[in-house]
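Hello forum,

I keep getting stuck at the same step: I have a sequence, I want structure tokens, and every attempt I make locally crashes halfway through. Rather than fight my setup again tonight, could one of you with a working pipeline run this one for me? It's a single chain of 93 residues.
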Amino acid sequence: MILILIKAVNWFAEILTFLIIARAIMSWFVRDPSSSLFNIYQMIIRITEPIVAPCRMLLSRFNTGMMDFSILVAFLLISVARNLIVALLSTLV
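Reply #2:
Ran it on my machine without issues. Output:
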């Protein structure tokens, strides 16, 4: 049972990472609100914004200029959370 939970945590973290990568790449190319990709991009933003927005707020305290490093911080947080959860679950095995 614990191994299934560990796999689920890893799977969820991988999906979030993939969605954040897709968000970053699509932000460069998707501009036209009438395109079908724009709807997918908006959906990805709604899914990932609860993770990225707090990172953006945290980084706004440090004057990073025009660069938005919130995506990188979100990657880091997802990785740390996954490793922590998996480590805690592994102690239960």
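The chain has one domain: 2-90. If your local run keeps crashing, start a new thread with the error log.
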